Amino acid sequence: MSLLSTLLVLVFAARLLGKLFARYKQPEVVGEILAGILLGPAVLGVIQPSPALAGISELAVFLVILSAGLEMRFDAVVSAMRGRGLLLAAASFLIPFAGGAAVGTYYELDAMRIVFLGLCVSITALPVAAKILDGLNILDTRIGRYSISTAILNDIAALLLLGVILSLPPQPTVLAVTSSLLTGGAKLLALAAIVLAFNRGLLWLEGNGVKIQNLPERLVATLGAETLFGIVVLFVLIFGSLSEMLGFHFVIGAFFGALLLDKRFFLASRYDDLTKTLGSVTGGFLAPVFFAYLGLKFNFSAMQDVGFVAAVLAASVITKLVAGWWGGLMVGMTHREALGLGCILNGRGVMELIVASIAYEKGFIGAGTFSTLVLMGIVTTLLAPFLFNRVMPEAKLLSYRSTTPAGS
Questions:
Q1: Is 188 within a domain?
Q2: Mutual angle of helices 350-361 and 111-122, in 10-degree steps
Q3: Which pTM value belongs to this model?
Q4: If both were cysteines, with which of 35, 260, 300, 337 could 14 make a disulfide (CB 3.0 to 4.6 Å apart)?
């Protein structure tokens, strides 16, 4: 089957199942992932994962992140990372990491497999969390902002540790580990400094009477209204590329780049046109491809130890729920809010699969562990919205949206 035919079948099935799930008050992402599982090697074998689909999936991730960043405010996300928000992020990383490491130790895995198992369990994927929150229409609520900020910090921590591991010599020493940690930390501080400096610069210009919205208007007047979308994409790509150059995944920088594009920098009509264009391209085509592609990578045959698989899944779900609930209470959430936060933090998807794929390619984990981690990423991503809907049924969710307005 050609690439175009493959995309046609994949998008059609993903959209069909996505809309079916939405009809029954479930996020579309659940149906989109199941479409990939049904069409992929796990069930029907109609479509196989390929480098071409992987490339399209990466583009989809970028646009999902761009859409999420445009929907949120920079100061709201940064404030969620301060004080107790930082404690929440630390708890949601360290508790699941400890749970994954405990399972690996019990099953007598080697040290490297234990570390990678802990890393994959501790991750909350930013694109997946953003998609679920957007589908539930709670992206700019307390749960949404703390979920996004926690996902960012979890992913940064996991990728920082991944970078340290990959840079270690065959026979690591204390000095080599320390050097790798310091280098990674310096790169992280550099990325944060660039983003914060750019934001301060925009605020300074605004404070000195410069109307920043005049710049996109002049570009539109010169190049045409349809170029605004391309200019925004280019701007965000610069930050994503910068993030990648520093050794982090491109979605980290892309999200912050999109976050810097506050809606007050555009005329209201231009901003609405931009979000509608982005929503059509992302929600109508690329996002379903991305989530269906996650399902394509699922494979039953490589998993033989059922007890190990069950233990990994149980540790993954329970530790994130506990960490989210405990951390949520620390930042002043109600018990229901905190449990809802723990449910959302179970969305792993792309970031967990990236770490697992790198570990597998580098020979740090075997096929069995890799397949278990892929299953864990898919199952927890599927469970996240289901669990959230049990904690916050429709009536409670409507009340929550009305009592937690944007920016609260």
A1: yes
A2: 160
A3: 0.72
A4: 35
